[in-house]
Amino acid sequence: MEFYTLTVLLLAATIRLATPLCLAAFGGLFSERAGVVALGLEGMMLGGAFAAAAASAVTGSAWIGLGAGVAAASFLALILAFACVTQRGNQVVAAMAVNIMVAGLAPTLALAWFDLGGQTPQLANPAQRFTELIWPGAAAARSVPLPGLLYAELVSGHSLIVYGAALLVPLVGWILYRTRFGLRLRAVGENPQAVDTAGISVVRLRYSAVLLSGVLCGIAGTYLSISASAGFVRDMTAGKGYLALAALIFGKWRPLPTLGACLLFAFTDALAARLQGVALPGVGVIPVQFILALPYILTVLLLGGFVGRSLPPKAIGQPYEKEK
Amino acid sequence: MSAPAAGRDRRWLEAILLPVINLVAALLISGLIVRLIGESPWAALKLLVAGAFGNQEAIGYTLFYATNFIFTGLAVAVAYHAGLFNIGAEGQAYIGGLGVGLICLVGGTWPFWIVLPAAIVAGAGFGAAWAFIPAWLQARRGSHIVITTIMFNFIASALMTWLLVNVLIKPGQQSPESREFAASAQLPTLAELLGHIGIKVTASPANLALLLALIAAGGVWVLLWRTRWGYALRVTGESPAVARYAGISPARVTIAIMLLSGALAGGLGLNELMGAQHRIDLDFPAGAGFVGIAVALMGRNHPAGICLAALLFGALSQGGSELSFDMPHVTRDMVVVIQGLVILFCGALENVFRKPLQRLWRKGP
Lengths: 324, 365
Known about the structure:
The structure holds two protein chains of two kinds.
Chain A: H1 2-33, H2 41-59, H3 62-86, H4 91-114, H5 138-141, H6 146-155, H7 160-178, H8 180-190, H9 192-197, H10 202-228, H11 240-250, H12 255-275, E1 279-280, E2 284-285, H13 288-303
Antiparallel strand pairs in A: 1-2
Helix pairs in contact in A: 1-6, 1-7, 1-10, 1-11, 1-12, 2-3, 2-4, 2-10, 2-11, 3-4, 3-10, 7-8, 8-10, 11-12, 11-13, 12-13
Chain B: H1 3-36, H2 41-53, H3 56-81, H4 89-106, H5 112-141, H6 145-166, H7 190-196, H8 209-226, H9 228-238, H10 240-245, H11 250-266, H12 268-277, H13 288-298, H14 303-326, H15 332-348, H16 350-363
Helix pairs in contact in B: 1-15, 1-16, 2-3, 2-14, 3-8, 3-11, 3-12, 3-13, 3-14, 4-5, 4-6, 4-11, 4-12, 4-13, 5-6, 5-11, 8-9, 8-14, 13-14, 13-15, 14-15
């Protein structure tokens, strides 16, 4: 019984931790499947997190915060798209530039506007945040042993963004594989010449893909700063954008496996928090740092072809030069 | 006009004019941001320059930071010449520094002339070893080096946290730091060195590692432009297909150049730990591996350009910390913004100014 409760709580934590990863990874999915490297997820997410917390602190509305988060991340996405698509610059360099710039800009603006040492004010009012939604009967269900706890912890008790992210998974799969836009998007990441020959604009497709990744990263950042916590702090994303990219690669650039990778990485994260200092029978204390590094180690092993094979979209990272 | 002369003009444009224009563009946008947060950009610039070069101690600090950036800038640049983008200089510097630190801790009773070469070898060796796995994976298994080196930054960080918290920590201490190195395992400062030849300067953390960094820069220049191997390397970077046709193995070049890249990044430990901190502490590279990207791009991947760009970023780091005393809203975070903008303009948006300039050039007299 003790074990069952622990497992359910661990899974509930996994869902919460997987939400920002999943949003960012699916954003990256659009971008990479269109042939634009998604290294900028980290910066766009951080920018979104800051803008959401700042706007929510000033206006008092979580929804305006969400709008600001999405707008800021989309603006960064436009910078990326301009550098990568219009200027045909080095995509890795452009993404690193955005990531580094935002890492400096967010605390600078926070300090100038709020004078709290690079943070935004604590969001005390519930209207400023996306708080947990308690489903009807959740409190009563808790007393029912097995399914009751499952309902109270796993189904109920998450923020709106978590449920939104859950709906997003099938939606992104449908867009990518069942719509004309999705087909063209995947084609432009494999063979842009063919797409161009068919009279479809490579530039417009890639801009929309990068912009979509910006929107999703904005939501992911918003979740971090005004749903999972109550304000923005310096370096809030702490590598989650890179982890999302790892999940995308681990998921072989396909929606369902990517979701699986996000859940796996989030689970290791939740487990690391639980296992801190706990001695396991026969193994002893597993260092938390090892568990935290596990997603990165797994991704490296996968990329090396030791755990299955993962092939990227063919035209990834290559700027498209129209024939003259 | 003869063709070679036109070529020389072009080189002048590429090597000096473009980097300067890109830097000015980055600084202009940074100025706008400073304006936006309600400070005067002009006053900030004056304070920054004074903070970086105003007195001997300030210059010493600027040179100290620049030393780190020369090492990481060279690390990024040599890989770039072989067509590889090494984002892992941060992790390689971290692990390389571990090598330096271990020698300094173990070799407390050794004389300085043994500790120094041992620390150089260990720093380079550990850094190279950390770069080897991504290099091997890229060369032999085709996995992308950008992704694997990022992953290795995180793995390095986890490994070092574990080592410092559980193994290297000084007994009876809370903060995760090693014990202090013995006096014979510390690099002499520039002030001490200059004192020997009768020049008196104010003490600062700038140390012997600056000279080592300059020697490394010279070595990289000789290697890249004056040896067969350097030629093979640059050919591989331009076109792996041509290299293969010429009998060069791109896989071998990839591994060799990443070893060199990691070894150069490892040099940071000499300056930061052996030269200044005199102990191993958490996150001592403090982002210098990423500054290396900006330095390499700004310096056009040439050792001379890298030294100049490293000096610029050293000045920004030092001046930026001084600046926050007078303008509490403009901190070193602002320097990180400038760094990002420099990478953007020198790296990703380099064609924005190049194309119009080239057009102007052709039209001109």
